[in-house]
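hey so i finally got around to running the thing on that chain from the lab meeting. sorry it took forever, my laptop kept dying and i had to restart like 3 times. anyway pasting the input first so we r on the same page abt which one it is
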Amino acid sequence: QVQLVESGGGLVQPGGSLRLSCAASGSIFGVNDMGWYRQAPGKQRELVATMTNGGSTNYANSVKGRFTISRDNADNTVYLQMNSLKPEDTAVYYCNFRRLLPLPTYDYWGQGTQVTVSS
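ok and heres what got predicted. didnt touch it at all, straight out
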């Protein structure tokens, strides 16, 4: 089992910045991927950014150049720095821990944190 504790989020004006954090604890071993997904009202959950414990990153095209993901493997914590926020970034952001190896692949999710971009 893996537990995820998220922090950050809130209300910010367009063009502003926020930082999300997610700390993982529990059965953390092997190759894994940590990151963020988001879900806006009436839409499907979508990938925002992820990072493996080996340092490989993956970003949604819509956030490239504005969001930066980083992680501290010693603390099993992942961060998402969000700059130049837009109203369309408004969503519930979910932390994800994906065990890649050993198989089988398995996903763990945080409870979600609301990000609202509005003037």
